[in-house]
Inverse folding.
């Protein structure tokens, strides 16, 4: 008797679902890019740039977005007022990355005029923390964002950091999904 | 440019749909540490990447960081952080924890508790054996506390609330970590180590142990309820393409260490569990499957009981038009036994095999951009309790991004425990004193409404009101045929019936205010008013005992100050008197100072229940003592 009543209610719900279907598509908002934007400047205290990378004790740390920009105004809002010690952090947007672009951190999205791999090559050996994104393709910078199990995570290529003359703290490495060490090992 | 991939509802809190997944607002992300950023769920099952605090329900989220700063060394103590829970410490290790009333060791039977999706609510007595849940607190990512019915998603027994304890992904706990806590009434410690597993995965293993000293009787003597326990376990997480996998397990043993073991309410506990989950991200939704096995055995003098649970559940979520739909099914088998050689109170049958199957569907419909309606229904069939259904309807109105008003109507069910259903008591000469198989499920229709918002940047507020209409609550009834001499006040035989109806209503409110970047003040309170009566034809010889022994109100205040490398925390809580049996109101304070010496080492000193040398929280009349501690936390 009870079971029959259940079926009745199920039927009513199924019917109401059918009626409500259709209409405007549901838009899926995501915190993926807000989280990536926060990571971009929060990496900075765990990275050591060579002393030659800084113009002066108070010169800005430039965070460049190279090529396609998935962040938009969100990144500017996130970075506004942030400092690394005495260095204010500023955002620049570039179509192409070059050794003399003045970037301390470069999020490389890639574009028609310069692929991610080409941009990474352009700054190899210069003190730039290159950040790439699995969503943009497989080419890896020093830090490479991936999304696993609904979380934004990253892998670190410490060998690439070494080539750019930079040191990454052990704490940041411990938070990485995996690390390619400068001696060829893995962590 | 590649479209941002949509990832859904994966990982540990498989069924934590209603609560959402993401713990942060966009504007809050800047406050989070690197570790915490890595723990932000980027989408929830609902269309918005809504934080748990935005679900249209009364939800309070305890973060791992809150637990660290509270000085709690056990899950029940950590749950005191939730203003929508009543946490009552009964003795050295036992607790009664409830939401929206029904507090008491035996009567707190309307709250479901899940650890990474695994239910720890025991069908033996419809409660939680808190002393057996020794999760390593350093591994807890967050605890979602939902007050109010959650049966539509979680099934029977989620009558007045659901607690989801969610541990960290192994990828967030690489390296070593140890905690040692030495205190005047207890000691505890844990050590964990984790490492990578292939390109995309990680593992960790841990051991945690505790020893709690005796509580005191009212006359100040030792109550001989001291306990110690050891638990170890592991968790592995890995991904392959759009598939995510988790395998985890724990094993534990707890026992009393009192020389007077025969007086101990429980003697020894041993158990273990193994859980596997798989989830896949689909282009338009996701699919997840969870399976677990759990075994728990308890020995006390001349008493032994054991429960094995096999559980399999699956769910699928997708969008169609303006509907976010999630549906799923589950199947659970429990096998238990209960052997009593102490007296004639036994379960008939001594062993039970119970099968439980359920299906559910929930649809969140966007009626207007600022208005969503969530309709859901769960149907459940148990070979012990029969069939039941748990529908709910929730409406959420978000006039601005900063506020939400919500209202809900839900039906919930509590199924009979093994003891309520099967307990008999035979005495030679008198025959059967307690009859069995006379009790059916208890029912609730709950009406709730609430507000949640951030009127200004520094202030967040939550307010919920509820009116709960109960029926068929448990009575102990005497049968007229066997009544002992008139005026003796004694009856036999007795049986368990469904003779109480009535309602409760109350308010739950909390908020936090950032006085400065380094100083956060939080406050919370809950009230309850109860009106119960015996239904026509029923006389409860237990005097409405099953409706609980609840304070009219409780309130708490917390201050969290963060200086350069110093955390300074204070907490104050007040619990009104319990009416029947009477327990005095009490006020207690906790304090903690933590010094983060460097990235890896933190040293803290603090105390709990500081205002009195000892105080009583429960009618069992055991005094909980003031506790002073020193704690070292070391990452390596």
């Amino acid at each position: 008797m009870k079971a029959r009543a259940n079926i009745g209610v199920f039927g009513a719900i199924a019917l109401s679902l059918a009626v409500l279907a259709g209409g405007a598509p549901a838009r899926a908002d995501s915190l993926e890019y807000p989280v990536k934007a926060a990571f971009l400047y929060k990496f900075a205290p765990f990275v050591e740039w060579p002393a030659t990378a800084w113009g002066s004790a108070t010169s800005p740390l430039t965070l460049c977005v190279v090529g396609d920009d998935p962040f938009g105004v969100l990144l500017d809002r996130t970075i506004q007022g942030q400092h690394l010690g005495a260095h204010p952090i500023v955002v620049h947007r570039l179509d192409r990355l070059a050794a003399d672009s003045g970037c301390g951190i470069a999020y490389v999205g890639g574009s028609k005029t310069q692929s991610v791999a080409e941009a990474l090559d352009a700054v190899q050996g210069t003190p730039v923390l290159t950040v790439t994104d699995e969503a943009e393709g497989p080419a890896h910078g020093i830090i490479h964002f991936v999304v696993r199990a609904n979380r934004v995570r990253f892998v670190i290529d410490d060998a690439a950091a070494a080539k750019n003359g930079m040191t990454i703290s052990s704490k940041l490495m411990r938070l990485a999904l995996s690390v390619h060490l400068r001696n060829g090992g893995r962590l | 440019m590649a479209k941002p991939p949509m990832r859904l509802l994966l990982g540990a809190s498989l069924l934590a749909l209603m609560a959402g997944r993401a713990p942060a607002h966009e504007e809050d992300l800047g406050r989070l540490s690197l570790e915490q950023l890595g723990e932000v769920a980027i989408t929830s099952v609902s269309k918005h990447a809504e934080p748990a605090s935005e679900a249209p329900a009364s939800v309070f989220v305890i973060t791992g960081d809150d637990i660290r700063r509270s000085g709690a060394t056990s899950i029940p103590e950590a749950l005191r952080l939730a203003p929508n829970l009543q946490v009552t410490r009964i003795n050295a290790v036992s607790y009664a924890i409830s939401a929206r009333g029904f507090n008491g060791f035996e009567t707190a039977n309307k709250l479901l508790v899940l650890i990474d999706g695994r239910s720890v609510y025991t069908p033996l007595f419809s409660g939680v054996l808190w002393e057996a849940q020794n999760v390593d607190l350093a591994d807890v990512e967050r605890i979602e506390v939902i007050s109010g019915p959650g049966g539509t998603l979680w099934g029977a027994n989620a009558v007045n609330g659901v607690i989801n304890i969610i541990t960290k992904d192994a990828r967030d706990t690489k390296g070593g970590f140890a905690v040692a806590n030495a205190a005047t009434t207890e000691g505890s410690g844990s050590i964990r180590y984790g490492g990578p597993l292939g390109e995309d995965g990680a593992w960790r293993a841990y051991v945690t142990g505790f020893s709690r000293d005796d509580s005191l009787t009212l006359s100040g003597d030792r109550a001989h309820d001291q306990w110690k326990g050891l638990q170890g376990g592991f968790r592995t997480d890995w991904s392959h393409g759009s598939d995510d996998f988790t395998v985890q397990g724990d094993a534990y043993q707890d026992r009393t260490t009192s020389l007077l073991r025969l007086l101990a309410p429980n003697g020894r506990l041993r158990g273990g569990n193994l859980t596997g989950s798989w989830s896949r991200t689909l282009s338009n939704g996701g699919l997840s499957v969870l399976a677990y096995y759990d075994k728990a055995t308890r020995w006390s003098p001349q008493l032994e009981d054991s429960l094995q649970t096999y559980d399999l559940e699956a769910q699928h979520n997708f969008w169609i038009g303006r509907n976010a739909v999630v549906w799923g099914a589950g199947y659970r088998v429990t096998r238990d036994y209960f052997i009593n050689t102490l007296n004639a109170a036994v379960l008939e049958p001594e062993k039970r095999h119970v099968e439980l199957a359920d299906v559910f569907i929930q649809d969140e419909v966007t009626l207007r951009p600022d208005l969503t309606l969530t309709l859901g229904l769960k149907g459940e069939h148990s070979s012990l309790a029969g069939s039941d259904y748990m529908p709910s309807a929730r409406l959420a109105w978000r006039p601005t991004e900063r506020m939400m008003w919500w209202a809900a109507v839900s039906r919930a069910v509590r199924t009979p425990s093994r003891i309520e259903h099967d307990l008999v008591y035979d005495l030679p000469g008198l025959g059967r004193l307690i009859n069995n198989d006379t009790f059916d499920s208890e029912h609730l229709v709950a009406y709730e409404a609430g507000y949640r918002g951030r009127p200004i940047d520094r202030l967040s507020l939550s307010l919920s009101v509820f009116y709960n209409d109960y029926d068929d609550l448990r009575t102990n009834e005497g049968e007229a045929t066997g009544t002992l001499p008139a005026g003796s006040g004694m009856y036999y035989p007795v049986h368990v019936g469904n003779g109480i109806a009535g309602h409760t209503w109350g308010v739950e409110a909390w908020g936090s205010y950032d006085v400065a970047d380094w100083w956060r003040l939080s406050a919370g309170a809950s009230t309850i008013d109860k009106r119960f009566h015996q239904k026509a034809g029923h006389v409860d010889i237990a005097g409405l005992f099953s409706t609980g022994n609840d304070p009219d109100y409780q309130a708490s205040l917390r201050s969290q100050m963060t200086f350069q490398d110093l955390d300074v925390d204070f907490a104050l809580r007040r619990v009104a008197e319990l009416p029947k049996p009477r327990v005095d109101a009490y006020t207690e304070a906790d304090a903690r100072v933590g010094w983060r010496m460097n990235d890896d080492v933190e040293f803290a000193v603090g105390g709990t229940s500081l205002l009195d040398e000892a105080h009583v929280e429960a009618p069992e009349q055991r005094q909980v003592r003031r506790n002073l501690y020193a704690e070292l936390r070391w990452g390596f």
Remarks:
- Chain B touches chain A through 64 residues (CB under 8 Å).
- Confidence is low (pLDDT under 50) at residues 1-24, 44-50 of chain B.
- DSSP finds five helices and 38 strands in chain B.
